[in-house]
Specification:
Helix content is 14%, strand content 48%. It has two helices and eleven strands. The protein has helices spanning 2-14, 56-68, and strands at residues 20-28, 38-46, 50-55, 82-85, 90-97, 100-107, 113-121, 124-133, 136-143, 161-167, 172-181. It has an eleven-stranded antiparallel sheet with strand order 6-5-4-3-2-1-11-10-9-8-7. β8 (124-133) and β9 (136-143) form a beta hairpin. The protein is globular and about 45 Å long.
């Protein structure tokens, strides 16, 4: 309940800040035979011109590197490090291979089917949308109360902020847990 009140309190600042930082909890199964899901916090930064999505651990290590002047290696659990221009579907995916980053460009256009079904997530009414992407069927829950058509990872293009998105087998579940103005 505190998280929902946090959204309401910051609503006026959401539209006047330089950028927005959304924190998502990602529950994922590292492989299809895993019985238990792992959890990691992910960051979605939305600036005036670009969008970045990455592991929160990456942010902590980057901040530590800037503060100390030393190079720190991050162990990103998910390898979900990407950036794209705001409003575009083309993503630059950064892959860490033996201390080097390789950039892979991808076009991630999604064809969403918006359903009339709604539900409450905390204090927010969200609406259902589905798509097929990356060989999986996905269900997203978005809110038009937040007129930002972005979401976690490569998910975007709905008429409101994505609060939750998961694949049909629940191997990947992204849930919005926090909002910060940066």
């Amino acid at each position: 309940m505190k998280k929902v009140l946090f959204f309401i309190t910051l609503m006026p600042y959401l539209f006047f800040s330089q950028g927005h930082r959304f924190i998502y909890e990602l529950k994922y199964k590292p492989d299809s035979t895993a019985e238990n899901a792992e959890k990691v916090e992910m960051v979605l930064d939305i600036g005036k011109k670009e969008v970045k999505f990455y592991d929160l651990q990456f942010l902590k290590v980057d901040s530590l590197s800037k503060k100390t002047g030393e190079s720190w290696q991050t162990n990103s659990q998910t390898q979900q490090l990407l950036k794209r221009n705001l409003g575009e579907d083309k993503s630059l995916n950064y892959k860490d291979v033996m201390f080097d980053y390789y950039v892979i460009e991808s076009d991630d256009k999604m064809n969403w089917q918006i359903a009339p079904e709604t539900k409450m997530l905390g204090e927010h009414q969200v609406q259902k949308a589905t798509t097929e992407f990356g060989g999986r069927k996905w269900t997203a829950w978005f809110s038009t109360d937040f007129p930002i058509n972005e979401g976690p990872y490569k998910f975007r293009g709905l008429p409101g902020m994505i609060f939750e998105v998961s694949d049909s087998k629940k191997h990947y579940v992204y849930t919005l847990v926090n909002l910060l103005c940066i």
